[in-house]
Amino acid sequence: MFQIRDPNEDDTDKNHDYITVLSDGGESQPLPRWKTYLYTLQLQAPKPKRIACRFEVPSKPPFYGKEYHGNITREDADQLLSEGDGSYLVRKSERAQNAFTLAIRFDNQTKNFKLYYDGMHYVGEKRFDTVHDLVADGLIHFYVELKAADYIASLSNESNYAESPYHAYTARKKRLERSQKSSSKKLSYNERASVATNGSANGALPQGTEDFDDSLDADVGSYEKKHNFKTQNFMGLHWCDFCANFMWGLIAQGVKCQDCGFEAHKKCSEKVPNDCMPDIKYVKNIFGADLTTVIKARNTPIPVVVDKCIKEIESRGLDAEGLYRIAGLHDEVETIRMSFDKDGENTDISEAKYDDINSLTSVLKLYFRLLPIPLVTFDSYKIILDTMKQDEPRSTRQMTKLREGLAKLPPAHFQTLKFLLSHLLRVTDKKPKNMMGPDNLAIVFAPTLMRSPDADPMQSLMNAQFEQKALETMIVCFRELFSRVSTQQSVDLSHGARKPSIDGRTFDRV
Ligand SMILES: [Zn+2]
Ligand SMILES: [Zn+2]
After folding, report:
1. Of 58, 97, 240, 306, which one has the greatest count of Cβ atoms within 10 A?
2. How close is the Cα of 137 to the center of ligand 2, in Å?
3. Within 13 Å, how many C-alpha atoms sit on residue 371's CB side?
4. Is the fold of 284-372 the same as that of 378-506?
């Protein structure tokens, strides 16, 4: 594997391929230099030259201007375009009715394209306001691809991701986040436990769980996340964050990740690993956004909505009758949702502002219901439902299967579920007052946490009772299910591995 060399450079330049800057931590790190070869080619590309028709053409379509020549032959068009590269005109198709042909001169040849209009002009996927822009973009592509075909073909293959601009920037961001996390981002389930289990009958820990790991120490920066690439019309000049080369053309020059802003050639984007570092600049909403994306963008171990709502609900005691069963006021729930999307961690959900606790419980349920991928992801769901259907309730086999299902969860989902279940367990401690046991809570929460991948409504309906049973079991057996998984998972994460192992076995994460 070798570094792409810019053909414009000679070897004396070699030592300057990377400039070194000092990062916040005082360490030096290389930043790749942007490569300008393709940019200079774009500048050299022929410019569009409209060959205007000197006559009034009868029944000229209103969306064409002087470039429209009507019913002329291929040979006539060829003749008119002999002015040189970049010349173009539009004529009526010789073969089809109401069809038009765009003829462009390039490299001393006339290229003919079927030209379409639907409010925008296009010959392929890319759409343009004017025929002139379409031709300008086409000429850039013809030229760049003619002059640099081999160079372009090698862009994504020969680029070293470890030396890409994106990698350099995110490495810095990750270091920054790690230093912030160590000071303030550690949470403990016990912080909440001390509030809720005070004086409760079930407050004591079950036997054999003294070493239960209930810290929420998550290395959010290391969580795997796919980029969310979409084709982008870049305004102005842009360079690829993967290969550091110019993204040529006038529109749809490449793709951009909607979550972190990574810009790349389409082909380069296919080589990028799943290490998206979402930015709050791009990920504005919390509700309805992917869980991993949100916590990575905000660098919190669990989503701010879940953290704040549970903290507030526990601080008001968990005595309210029908907690989580009774719905809050619709308008109030909407107001809280919008302020979380707008203010994030600074959202005020204090009792002075919202005295109805049911509005807070409804917001929490709404958050889970709106997740694009449910908290219990589809991979885990299948394993969990299978054991609920097939195995003896709470048998050793079922516990093993449930832990296996939980281990399939992406770390962000796992940590959030663990956090929520530990809270629900404390809610059940107050059952004599709030009348909410694990069975009632399971009925309320199962539809928001689990979603059947089965499209058949009858099947989904039949699954509902098993979903409830699964959730009830997860609440009641919380410590048994999460102790070993969590301990092992946090160890694995800290070493950068992504396969939590349970009892010495390793489960593949998808
Ligand atoms: Zn991304
Ligand atoms: Zn590229």
Report:
1. 240
2. 18
3. 28
4. yes
User: Each residue of 457-472: pLDDT tens digit?
Assistant: 888 889 999 999 999 9
**Model confidence pLDDT, tens digit, residues 234-279:** 988 999 999 999 999 999 999 999 999 999 999 999 999 999 999 8
Q: Would the pLDDT of 164 be above 90?
A: no
Distance 255 CA to ligand 2 centre (A): 10
Return d(Cα 124, Cα 508) in angstroms, integer: 41
354, 336 Cβ separation under 8 angstroms:
yes
Q: Which ligand is nearest to the CA of 271?
A: 2
Residue 85 pLDDT exceeds 80: yes
Domain segments of the chain as ranges:
44-149, 284-372, 378-506
* Stated pTM of the model: 0.73
Q: Given this structure, which CATH class describes domain 284-372?
A: mainly alpha
| CATH number for the segment(s) 44-149 | 3.30.505.10
Q: Which long-range contacts (CB under 8 A, 24 or more apart) does 281-289 make?
A: 282/257, 282/258, 283/259, 284/341, 285/341, 286/340, 286/341, 286/344, 286/367, 287/337, 287/340, 287/341, 287/366, 287/367, 287/370, 288/370, 288/371, 288/372, 289/372
Name the CATH topology of 378-506: Phosphatidylinositol 3-kinase; Chain A (1.10.555)
Closest ligand relative to 262 C-alpha: 1
Q: Answer yes or no: are the C-beta atoms of 369 and 376 closer than 8 Å.
A: no
Q: What are phi and psi of 128, to 5 degrees?
A: -130, 150
Return mean pLDDT, the chain: 84
The pLDDT value recorded for residue 492 is 39
Q: What is the 240 CA–ligand 2 centroid distance (Å)?
A: 5
